[in-house]
Design goal:
Zincin-like, 21 helices
């Protein structure tokens, strides 16, 4: 059940650049900062989904362990963006566009991309790039001083205003161009290092680098018309031909180059792609990619999702029931049935399949949260305590879900526990970045709890929380 959430706070490259320079580390050169900050404010949303997140964890777990990052809690964050891209913006998160998952036809292709991004994290490339940028700022100051000195010398020599402007412009532009080229050259070296690390991780886990090579070769074909006209130093990656040649040599030297993805993993990858297409594409697009003549379980999955999304809930439920009959061990079919019924206003009917999905996934917090919401929306007083139990456990494991906190607040309110209702509402506001409202609700909750009690202490922490400066307008 891909669920949109607020965009994370990170700097991203421009949309056109992101499409042209795939697999980029999200390191922004100074000239791009203003654009990137604006995009970060508007930014695309992130997507949460238990099935997809579980698959991506299985893809990254052996890679991260090999890279020495197994204990670092590195997570993969899914971005709702159709272009093929993946990047890192810090040492804890790998961002992957939905387009990368949809366009990768084999697990190996996306695993290679994830291995490349892991190479950036393990290599400390982002920290070193920040040092490079700090150095560039110092160099820029020197450049401006040189320009000022050149203009002063020109004035002393009797040069006119136009000539002074030319001298100043040349003095400023030449060092800044040198700075830019130096930074880009540095970044190209880091990209090549990440490629080498990726192949090393894949070798260590007995996986092929062929998928990674196939992905890069595809982009080489897409960029041929660009590379003939643009200075290679204006690109933040090595030129495709050079990069692919080096990668191809490494990949083909591996004893695992011809290794294939396990059939079960390929099947999960196909289901993930079908799910994303079913949720994100128009019905005609889904029908074209998965025609009725396609009887594969992935095709049925995509069509069932599309049917419910575009109003045919009864038809969708019938298709989901057929999927369950075909594979009753798949918990995500029960989750989908519950979601379709819940969003159609049939909360009571959604409870049973969601309970089944929670049990089959060992209490996955996103599914548990949906079950809690269904129990609240059903309006049955006998469900209230169950809703509180499910939502408390969901928020303990996933404390950033505003909707789960909101539903928990409603459940507490129905039970007459106004102190915890206010506290949960405050947590919901904080999860949405509404710090001022959150503090007001927390202050009200603090008044309701006995002083010094666990609830009072939690509310007091929220009241005294200092939001980040970027959220100062909401204080």
């Amino acid at each position: 059940m891909p669920m949109p959430s607020s965009s994370p706070s990170f700097l991203s490259v421009g949309r056109a650049l992101a499409r042209g320079l795939c697999l980029a580390a999200a390191v922004v050169l100074p000239i791009q900062v203003a654009l990137a900050q604006e995009q970060a404010r508007k930014g695309p949303s992130t997507i949460r989904d238990t099935e997809i997140e579980a698959l991506l964890k299985d893809y990254t777990r052996p890679i991260l362990k090999t890279a020495g990052l197994g204990q670092q809690n590195v997570e993969v964050v899914l971005i709702s963006e159709r272009s093929f891209n993946a990047f890192v913006a810090d040492g804890k998160r790998i961002f992957v566009n939905t387009g990368a998952l949809v366009d990768s036809t084999t697990p190996n292709q996306i695993i290679g991309v994830l291995a490349h991004e892991t190479g950036h994290i393990a290599g400390g490339h982002l920290a070193r790039m920040r040092e490079q940028l700090a150095g560039a700022q110092t160099m820029a100051i020197v450049a401006m001083l040189l320009a000022a000195g050149g203009m002063a010398a020109g004035a002393a020599g009797g040069m006119n205003g136009r000539d002074l402007g030319n001298v100043g412009g040349a003095a400023l532009s030449a060092p800044q161009e040198l700075i830019r080229r130096s930074l880009l050259n540095y970044q190209r070296g880091e990209e090549a290092a990440a490629d080498r690390s990726a192949v090393k991780y894949l070798d260590a886990t007995h996986q092929s680098a062929k998928g990674m090579l196939e992905t890069f070769q595809r982009f080489q074909n897409d960029q041929l018309f660009i590379s003939q006209r643009v200075d290679p130093y204006t690109l933040s990656h090595p030129m495709a031909r050079e990069r692919i040649a080096a990668l191809e040599q490494l990949a083909k030297a591996s004893p695992y180059y011809e290794a294939k993805d396990p059939p079960a993993l390929q099947a999960r990858h196909d289901m993930m792609r079908a799910k994303l297409i079913g949720f994100m594409e128009r019905p005609e697009t889904v029908a074209r990619r998965y025609p009725a003549s396609d009887t594969s379980i992935a095709a049925q999955y995509a069509r069932a999702i599309s049917a419910y999304r575009f109003g045919n809930v009864n038809g969708s439920v019938a298709q989901i029931d057929a999927l369950i009959a075909r594979d009753p061990s798949n918990p995500y079919f029960y989750e989908l049935k519950g979601q379709a019924l819940l969003e159609a206003g049939r909360a009571t009917e959604s409870v049973a399949p969601l309970r089944k999905a929670v049990a089959m996934t060992n209490g996955a917090p996103l599914i548990r949260s949906m079950l809690g919401q269904a129990l609240v929306q059903a309006g049955n007083p006998s469900y209230t305590q169950e809703a509180i139990r499910e939502l408390v456990q969901a928020t303990q494991r996933d404390p950033n879900s505003a909707s789960a906190w909101r539903s928990l607040s409603l459940a507490y309110g129905r039970s007459g526990d106004l102190a915890n209702a206010d506290l949960a509402a405050a947590q919901s506001s904080f999860a949405e970045g509404e710090f001022k409202l959150g503090r007001e609700l927390a202050a009200r909750a603090r008044q309701r709890f006995p002083q010094g009690s666990p609830g009072w202490l939690q509310a007091d922490d929220l009241v005294n929380f200092k939001p980040p400066k970027s959220a100062a307008n909401q204080q």
